[in-house]
C-alpha cells in the first residue's frame, strides 16, 4: 500500500488553486526531498504539463511526457470507460462496462478511435521518440487532477513495464475514492486537495481552469531550462 501525502487543511475545499502553475509550485515544495536525486518526471498532457513544469524547475530535471488517453463513451466527451497507454493497451472500468452493457463492437470502435488520437498526440508532442528504459529510477507522474483515475492507472502500469523504480504520483486534486483505489498501485501519492462526496470535477479545484491546446503544451516544454534528449 502506498503512502498518501496530503494537505489536511485543503481537504474537501473547492477553488483551492488560482491555476495549474500555482498548484505545481505547491506540489514542488512537497517534493523537494527528491532534489538532487536521479528522478524521472513524466507529465500526462495536456493539463499535467503546466503542473509538472513547476516541479521540474525546482527538482532541476528534464520533463518527459507519457501519452495516455481516456476511452470516451460514444455519447459524451466528458466521461469514459477506461484508458489506453502508449502501447495501445487498455485499462477498463469493468464495473461501469457491466452496468452499461455496451456491445463489444461499440467498445472496440471507441478503443480504435482513442488509439488513433493517441498516435497523433505521440507524433505531435513526443515526435514519436521511444520511451526510455527507466532502469529502476524513481519516477514521478504528474497530472492536474484525478477524477476516475484510469488515465493515471494506464500511465503507472506502462511506466512500471519500462522498469521504473519507486512510483510517485503527484496531483493537486483528486477524488477520495480514486485515491483509495490508486494507493495500492504506487509507492507515494502526493495530493494537496483530496475531496469526498459523490460528485467530483477536477476543474472545481481551480479558479482559472481551461482545456490546454497542444500549442500551449509545446510552448511550456520549450520554456524549460532542461530538455529531454
Shape: globular
CATH structural fold name of the largest domain: Rossmann fold
Unreliable spans: none
Percent of residues in beta strands: 15-25%
Largest sheet: 6 strands, parallel
Structural class comes to alpha/beta
Mean of pLDDT: 91
Q: What would CATH call the architecture of the largest domain?
A: 3-Layer(aba) Sandwich
Task: Tell me the radius of gyration.
Answer: 17 Å
As a percent range, the share of helical residues equals 25-40%
Distance N to C terminus: 34 Å
What's this entry about, in short?
The protein is of the alpha/beta class and 229 residues long.
Structure, described:
The protein is α/β, with parallel strands linked by helices and 229 residues long. It folds into 2 domains: 3-67 and 136-223, Rossmann fold (3-Layer(aba) Sandwich); 71-124, no CATH class. The protein contains 7 helices and 9 strands. The chain has helices at 20-30, 48-59, 94-100, 104-126, 150-161, 176-182, 214-223; strands spanning 3-6, 39-43, 63-65, 69-72, 80-84, 90-92, 138-142, 167-175, 188-195. The strands form 2 sheets. It has a 6-stranded parallel β-sheet, sandwiched between helices. Strands 4-5-6 form a 3-stranded antiparallel β-sheet, with helices on both faces. α1 packs parallel to α2 (48-59). The N and C termini lie far apart (34 Å). The model has no long low-confidence stretch (mean pLDDT 91).
Amino acid at each position: 500500500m502506498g503512502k498518501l501525502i496530503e494537505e489536511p487543511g485543503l481537504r474537501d475545499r473547492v477553488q483551492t488553486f488560482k491555476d495549474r502553475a500555482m498548484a505545481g509550485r505547491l506540489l514542488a515544495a512537497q517534493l523537494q526531498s527528491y532534489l538532487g536525486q536521479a528522478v524521472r518526471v513524466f507529465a500526462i498532457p495536456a493539463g499535467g504539463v503546466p503542473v509538472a513544469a513547476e516541479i521540474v524547475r525546482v527538482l532541476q530535471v528534464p520533463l518527459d511526457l507519457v501519452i495516455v488517453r481516456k476511452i470516451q463513451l460514444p455519447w459524451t466527451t466528458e466521461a469514459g470507460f477506461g484508458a489506453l497507454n502508449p502501447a495501445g493497451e487498455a485499462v477498463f472500468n469493468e464495473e461501469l462496462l457491466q452496468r452499461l452493457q455496451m456491445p463489444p463492437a461499440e467498445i472496440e470502435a471507441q478503443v480504435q478511435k482513442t488509439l488513433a488520437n493517441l498516435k497523433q498526440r505521440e507524433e505531435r508532442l513526443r515526435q514519436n521518440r521511444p520511451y526510455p528504459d527507466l532502469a529502476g529510477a524513481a519516477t514521478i507522474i504528474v497530472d492536474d487532477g484525478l477524477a476516475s483515475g484510469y488515465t493515471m492507472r494506464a500511465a503507472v502500469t506502462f511506466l512500471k513495464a519500462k522498469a521504473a523504480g519507486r512510483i510517485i504520483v503527484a496531483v493537486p486534486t483528486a477524488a477520495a475514492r480514486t485515491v483509495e483505489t490508486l494507493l495500492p498501485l504506487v509507492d507515494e501519492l502526493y495530493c494537496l486537495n483530496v475531496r469526498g462526496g459523490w460528485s467530483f470535477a477536477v476543474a472545481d479545484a481551480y479558479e482559472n481552469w481551461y482545456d490546454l491546446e497542444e500549442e500551449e503544451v509545446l510552448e511550456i516544454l520549450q520554456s524549460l531550462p532542461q530538455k529531454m534528449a
